[in-house]
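Hey, weird one. I pasted the Adenylate kinase sequence into the form twice and got a warning about non-standard characters only the second time. First submission, copied straight from the form history:
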Amino acid sequence: MNNFLGYPREVTQGERFEQEIQSPVLRLMGRGRSDDTVETIKNRLHTFVESIKPVVDHYGKKGKLVKITAEGSVDGIFAEVCQHLNERVK
């Protein structure tokens, strides 16, 4: 993720870029913070992904991880979270 020169080279790479990088970068750029440059945002996202990966892997192996796409309305995302929580509480 650190170097985007010549990236993406394949359709699947482009789709992954759109899903994991482009949307958050555009959202964060709209915040208007003076330190929100494309490069600093990419670095923050990279740091976040690297730091959270062991936790995601751990709970994924235990079958206790649910991935939810955080795109869409707040109400829609909340409803999906509630649905998954309700399934596990029963």
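That's the output from the first submission. The warning seems to come from a hidden character in my clipboard, not from the data itself. The longest helix spans residues 38-61.
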